[in-house]
């Protein structure tokens, strides 16, 4: 797979960790990172999300970071202070230097920033989040609270279990079509008796449906199951799986993140 799809690339940060960054967010001057196993404690992120969020906030020299108790729903929470934000799968803020943290093992995390305004957001969307329409919920919350126009948003879908590997049952197919409409059938690939779901394509479809420009949706085109060496995978590791993290904040990265050396990973 191409690691540069959508401007996503792996770099080695100043503290020696291998992290993913999106060119679109770097250009916009939004501090952000997608962690990997290299330099990030994936077991801690599973066991103690607060400690992992604090570590991520510190790594970007932020004032703090807020995190969600992710429940595979479509609830979006607005935050203005660090720490536990409650049960939900979407989080938004316009507070300077406040990190928004998501954790995952296979499900897409999506980082969102307003090109024109101040707001940033993050959401976690597996098949339940797609069926529940969390992408649209987050975008309408940004519009309502911060006056954000969807056409001015950049949305970056972090690495997740890809359609190469993410097999689902008939129940998931039915639930996604119920939530998203019959058109969503094309987001599934049928191979013999088996069904595979393209979660990132589903989120892309929902973002564009909510008014985000096609050219403003980017995707970290690495599969967490193919690249289990880099990312924890619940499908492959079950309850033992750790979590990788993603963080975004309304803050200029110190010195410009794009000046760091790229790490080739193909
Ligand atoms: Zn794969």
Primary descriptors:
266 residues, alpha+beta, CNF1/YfiH-like putative cysteine hydrolases, 7-stranded mixed β-sheet, 6-stranded mixed β-sheet, 8 helices, globular, disordered N terminus, disordered C terminus
Short synopsis of the structure:
It contains eight helices and 16 strands. By secondary structure, it is an alpha+beta fold.
Could you characterize what this model shows?
It is a single chain. With 266 residues, the chain is an alpha+beta fold. It has one domain (5-126, 133-160, 217-254): CNF1/YfiH-like putative cysteine hydrolases, CATH 3.60.140. The protein has helices at 23-28, 42-47, 49-59, 127-132, 134-146, 170-180, 199-209, 234-237, and strands at 8-12, 18-22, 32-35, 64-69, 76-78, 83-87, 90-93, 98-104, 109-114, 120-124, 153-157, 167-168, 188-191, 194-197, 217-219, 244-248. The strands form 3 sheets. A 7-stranded mixed sheet has the order 1-2-3-16-8-4-6. A hairpin with a 5-residue loop joins strand 1 (8-12) and strand 2. The longest helix has 13 residues, at 134-146. The chain is globular. Residues 1-5 and 256-266 have low confidence and may be disordered. Zinc ion (ZN) is lined by residues 162, 164-165, 223, 225-226. Zinc ion is lined by residues 162, 164-165, 223, 225-226.
């Amino acid at each position: 797979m191409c690691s540069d799809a959508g401007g996503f690339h792996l770099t080695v940060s100043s503290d020696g960790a291998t992290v993913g960054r999106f060119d679109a967010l770097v250009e916009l001057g939004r501090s952000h990172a997608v962690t990997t196993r290299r330099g990030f404690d994936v077991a801690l992120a599973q066991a103690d999300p607060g400690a992992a969020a604090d570590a991520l906030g510190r790594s970007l020299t932020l004032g703090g970071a807020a995190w969600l108790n992710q429940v595979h729903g479509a609830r979006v929470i607005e935050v203005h202070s660090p720490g536990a934000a409650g049960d939900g799968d979407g989080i938004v803020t316009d507070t300077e230097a406040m990190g928004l943290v998501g954790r995952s093992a296979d499900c897409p995390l999506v980082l969102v920033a307003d090109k024109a305004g101040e707001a940033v957001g993050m959401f976690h969307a597996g098949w339940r989040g797609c069926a529940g329409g969390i992408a649209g919920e987050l975008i309408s919350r940004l519009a309502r609270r911060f006056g954000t126009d969807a056409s001015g948003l950049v949305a970056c879908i972090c690495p997740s279990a890809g359609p190469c590997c993410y097999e689902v049952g008939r129940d998931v197919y039915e639930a996604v079509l119920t939530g998203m409409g019959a058109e969503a059938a094309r987001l599934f690939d049928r191979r013999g008796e088996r069904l595979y779901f393209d979660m990132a394509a589903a989120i892309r479809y929902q973002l564009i449906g909510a008014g985000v420009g096609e050219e403003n949706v980017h995707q970290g085109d690495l599969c967490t199951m193919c690249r289990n060496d880099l990312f924890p995978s619940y499908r492959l590791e079950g309850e033992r799986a750790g979590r990788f993290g993603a963080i975004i904040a309304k803050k200029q990265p110190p010195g410009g993140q794009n000046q760091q050396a790229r790490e080739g990973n193909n």
